[in-house]
């Protein structure tokens, strides 16, 4: 019995990264802001899904939820005008044809930047956004894709295990380089930060834990999430690979996961509290 209890205690940190319960969502106040992260898989421009009207459905969801800031991964450039009309400020970087990352905000964007990597079409962009009387830097993260999901979903028994192992190893190596570049900049930046997006890896991964511990970040799901926090449409078990991390000067007041299947990912919305006074 004691051994079982000991093992459970050792594994508690991993359990809370996958399943959360008992967290009370705090009511929003005038000094709060909301943000959403969403890998939209190009709004179905490749017709990966037979579902009709996906782009309109995503736009309706975003308009209904009305986040102050929204960060898209795999954003499709022809849809830009839809969100340009919905939000006052924006920044976007397209590295792969008409696909890339975008940040839209109803608060003023005062500075922007990007991390581009030679080994990858994925990247990280950021925007410094003036919220009330404070500035928050938002990093929109889309790390190297693992490229094995389709093989696994096609059938675990049929998948080429040696090929999968090599592909994963190479992807993790590139992800490590990307996270190291982000951590290096974070150590130089002294302001408030929100780091969110598609990490293409789990909360058990080295890159997630390195980023979280090196910069002493909090995971919004662990603070205010509920249930499994699933963010990816994987058929074998719930999978959380999309995260919202922030420094602890920001109060996580609410965390929301969605189940609308308009992409292979599900969106995440978080409410943060600022300790800075509201500007007149």
UniProtKB/TrEMBL annotation:
<dbReference type="Pfam" id="PF03372">
    <property type="entry name" value="Exo_endo_phos"/>
</dbReference>
<protein>
    <recommendedName>
        <fullName>Endonuclease/exonuclease/phosphatase domain-containing protein</fullName>
    </recommendedName>
</protein>
<dbReference type="InterPro" id="IPR036691">
    <property type="entry name" value="Endo/exonu/phosph_ase_sf"/>
</dbReference>
<dbReference type="InterPro" id="IPR051916">
    <property type="entry name" value="GPI-anchor_lipid_remodeler"/>
</dbReference>
<dbReference type="InterPro" id="IPR005135">
    <property type="entry name" value="Endo/exonuclease/phosphatase"/>
</dbReference>
<feature type="domain" description="Endonuclease/exonuclease/phosphatase">
    <location>
        <begin position="36"/>
        <end position="265"/>
    </location>
</feature>
């Amino acid at each position: 019995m004691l051994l079982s209890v000991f093992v459970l205690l050792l594994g508690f940190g991993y359990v809370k990264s996958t399943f959360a319960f008992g967290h009370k969502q705090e009511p929003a106040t005038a000094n709060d802001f909301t943000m959403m992260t969403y890998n939209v898989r190009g709004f179905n421009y490749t017709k990966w899904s037979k579902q009709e009207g996906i782009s309109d459905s995503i736009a309706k969801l975003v308009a209904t939820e009305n986040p102050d800031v929204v960060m898209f991964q795999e954003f499709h450039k022809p849809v830009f005008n839809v969100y340009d009309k919905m939000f006052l400020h924006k920044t976007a970087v397209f590295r792969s044809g008409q696909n890339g990352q975008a940040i839209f905000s109803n608060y003023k964007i005062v500075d922007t930047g990007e991390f581009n990597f030679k080994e990858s079409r994925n990247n990280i962009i950021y925007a410094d956004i003036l919220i009330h009387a404070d500035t928050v830097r938002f990093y929109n993260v889309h790390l190297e894709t693992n490229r094995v999901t389709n093989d696994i979903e096609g059938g675990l028994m049929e998948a080429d295990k040696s090929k999968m192992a090599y592909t994963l190893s190479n992807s993790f190596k590139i992800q490590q380089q990307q996270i190291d570049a982000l951590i290096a900049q974070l150590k130089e930046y002294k302001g408030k930060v929100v780091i969110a997006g598609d990490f293409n890896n789990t909360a058990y991964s080295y890159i997630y834990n390195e980023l979280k511990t090196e910069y002493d970040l909090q995971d919004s799901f662990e603070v205010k999430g509920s249930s499994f926090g699933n963010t990816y449409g994987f058929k074998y078990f719930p999978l959380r690979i999309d995260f919202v991390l922030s420094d602890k000067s920001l109060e996580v007041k609410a965390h929301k996961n969605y189940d609308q299947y308009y992409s292979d990912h599900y969106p995440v919305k978080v409410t943060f509290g600022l300790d800075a006074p509201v500007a007149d």
